[in-house]
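*** Residues and shapes ***
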Amino acid sequence: MALITWSDSMSVGVSRIDKEHQGLIALINLLHSEMLAGKSKEALAVVLDKLVAYTKVHFAGEETLFRTLNYPAMATHLKEHAALTQKAVQLQSDLKAGKVMISAPVLDFLRDWLTNHILKQDMAYRLFFASKGVK
């Protein structure tokens, strides 16, 4: 069973961003299924590395749109991206150092982080992007 299931209520109305969000969900779900299957720390680290890399690419794309369109809440959103990236990189580092294992609490954090970010911070730009004709 998937840890996160995409729904239309998560759509920010920008096709590319929605597809990227679905990609992030897929990676978190893969990490979840790999953990449940008892995969090695190294195998889980590979998936986490992909998740962190994809998150950075996704955030960079959003931030480019923010700058291009002069999104009014850009500064706040950029701080959120920086904080989330820092947490993800720290988790990645801690896993490699053996300080943390991929566990239910870690996956709960990732699920909550992504869903809250989409449903709160990202939804805040939905109307702004729509008003600029971004689909």
Q: What stands out?
A: The two ends are 31 Å apart (CA to CA). Residues 41-69 form the longest helix (29 residues). Helices lie at 15-36, 41-69, 74-96, 104-122, 126-131. The mean pLDDT is 92.
